[in-house]
Amino acid sequence: MKLVVQRVKNAKVEVEGKVVGKIEKGFLVLLGVAHEDTKQEADYLVKKLCNLRVFEDENEKMNLALKDVGGELLIISQFTLYADCTQGNRPSFINAARPEIAEPLYEYFCNECEKNDIHVEKGIFGADMKVSLLNDGPVTIIMEK
Does 125 participate in catalysis according to the annotation? Predict the structure, then answer.
């Protein structure tokens, strides 16, 4: 499982011109699922994500987590995180999990984040989504398990 985590001032996702998810201060998370991923990988990354201390404290040090600042999550499924560009110019997505594996793990991941008392917004799995954000910092972190 792979996450691209961006600290944002705000972010939203639209499908067919309609906003389906929107947050203010928090993280925009792009989530990719590989074939071999299980709930074990998801649990590990949920814990890491929900406790990631990259918000500034009173001394301007990145020392605060989402809950400390009342942050929110916008989690978007992103199979292209598993693109393999080693051969030719057209990426292969063979390492990305099929939808019947990826979608339940995506939903599980989102639900587990909510269990940490963090407000979660989502995109629509498999949809053509338009994502916009105001990156804060910028702070962008890649997490894998």
Answer: no
Catalytic residue among 6, 27, 55, 78: 78
Question: Which residues touch 45 (CB under 8 Å, ≥6 apart)?
Answer: 1, 3, 109, 143, 145
CATH code assigned at 92: 3.50.80.10
Catalytic residue among 6, 27, 55, 79: 79
Full residue range of the structural domain in which residue 17 is found = 2-144
The reply to whether 55 belongs to the active site is no
* 11 close to 29: Cβ distance less than 8 angstroms: no
CA dist 12 to 29, 88, 116, 128, Å? Answer: 11, 34, 21, 14
| pTM over 0.70, yes/no | yes
CB atoms under 10 Å from CB of 135, counted, come to 13
Please report the pLDDT score of residue 138 as a whole number: 94
Q: Which residue out of 38, 40, 80, 140 is catalytically annotated? A: 80
- Site of tokens 């990988």: 41
Average pLDDT taken over every residue of the chain: 97
Q: How many CB atoms lie within 10 A of CB 49?
A: 24
Count structural domains, the chain: 1
